[in-house]
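[Meeting: bench + compute handoff]

Bench side (C.D.) handed over the final construct sequence. Compute side (W.E.) agreed to return the predicted structure before the next meeting so the bench team could plan truncations. Sequence as handed over:
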Amino acid sequence: MPEAAPTQEPRGEREPIRVLLIQDDEQSVLALEKALTLTKKPAFKLEAVTRLDQALAVLKEKKFDIVLLDTSLPDCYGEETFKRVQDAASRLPILVVSDPSDESDAFELVRMGAQDVIDKGALSPRLLVRGILNAIERKKVLSDTFLTQEKYRTIFENSAVAITVTDKNERIVSWNRFAENLLGMTEEDLCGRPVSSLYSEDEWKRIRSYRISEKGMQPTLEAQVIRKDGKVLDCDISISVLKDESGNITGSIGIMKDVSARKRAAREIKRAEEQYRAIFENSAVAITVTDAEEKIISWNKFAESFLGMNYEDLYLRGVSSLYPEEEWKKIRACNIRQKGMQHVLETRIYRKDGSLADVDISISVLKDVNGRITGSIGVIKDISERKRLQQLKDDFVSAVTHELRTPIGIVRESMAQFQDGLLGEANDLQKRVLSTSVNCLDRLSRIIDDLLDVSKIEAGKMDLRRETIELVTLIKDVAGGFKPKMAEKKLELVMEFEAESMRAEADPDRIIQVFTNLISNSIKFTDSGTIKVAARFKEGPWIECEVADTGRGISEEDRIKVFSKFEQFGRKLPESEKGTGLGLSICKGIVELHGGAIEVHSNAPQGTRFIFTLRASGPGRTRS
């Protein structure tokens, strides 16, 4: 494809027209100079050379608006002269001024690109000026037309849409490469093909019904186009009718864009929305959707039924108003917006009649493509009946354990006296049996103590004896008591403290209970490596405590229920080492009663870290 001819540089309105005269006849040069000098408007600036090599040199150095050329030069002649000047000045109009010669030569020069061929002997100043101006204007029009065609061709060939051009008989006469790729067709398939064959019969009738020939244009239309392989594509098409200067239809241009992927996505979205709506409306749990300002904008029928509320009660209601103040604070403390979701959080919620219901809630944060929060979905499950049954069970356990403590204590004391010989000398076999029995009773007492602690925590009846404690000393004492057990399993004890003195406001007996449970757990499930106990200051009035091990770890599935009661996570231990599954639940209750929080980090089988916080004591909060 030829390169686009550059446009002539703009000249000021009063600047003369720059003319290069290539002519070896001195008389002719003088005559042409005189003819141009006599012209006042427009003004001309003439430069003359007598040889082709001079002309080529000056064309490289200077700018001109037109070339007046005599093709008969001393160093070149005829069509060859014109061709070499044209190659050197392709952007300029060339007006051939020569002696009368064979008319066929003149036609050939015009065919080669000369603007005109005129007889220099018959030239008048007026005729010369008109010839020059006409030549310049024609060259400009041709250049503009060429550029326009080049732009059209560039757009046509490089468009990321399929373009077809039809004649007045609706047969395809031109197309771009994208059309070949889209339709899977070659030049043989497309040239002269009826455009109607790209559509099914019914689809073509539908396109015809738009009466595009009368309207002149159909800017957008969805249609199904058939590829060569028979595959049907969903396309957006636009059609423009082509007309001649008399208004007669000469053809049309069609633009096709494949939107099959978009249509598939739209169908998938619609199907997903239908599935979501079916689940949303028919779920046996209450579901609420909030906006970015935490106002309720959508809910299902079960939510209305469960809460006893209607549209007026729920629409744009602040979701926080559904919860007691202390419960909302607890929900906020979970940092759900930062985490993105929160599964299974027990709380209480208000019904319209003012009653409180125990619920499990799961919250998922909604975000747009830029990561900005747009709202949330809350799933609310009524657990009132479960809580009622749990309370009955806890009351039963509490009553039974209280009743068991006294007789177990009496039996143990009697066995201990017998074991110590206070009730008579026992033989070796009797001593072994008594020792086993006393150990079993001690284990049973620990189980009862754990059950009582859980009952007190859940009933809110566990009293704390708060005082300022020296945490570093407390931790060293507790950890030191486990050294024989660690030595037996060849485990290394590592202790890390941010400061020599770290004081906390806490019940020392309960914090000892927390560390004892956590360290004991770590030792149970660690076969080799280290047990680490650490404490460090956190932002605000808090101390962060850590118990970590290099043991078997906890699976992701088990981590969400690690602080639940009676959970053993399927880890195999000897009968003598098995606990009640209450230790971690008690730890969580004690930490939360102190106003702190506890969490677990583990990546089975690579160890476990328990981290909990305690409130630091102001006067004793020092750093090393």
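W.E. noted at the follow-up: DSSP finds 21 helices and 24 strands in the chain. C.D. will use this when planning the next construct.
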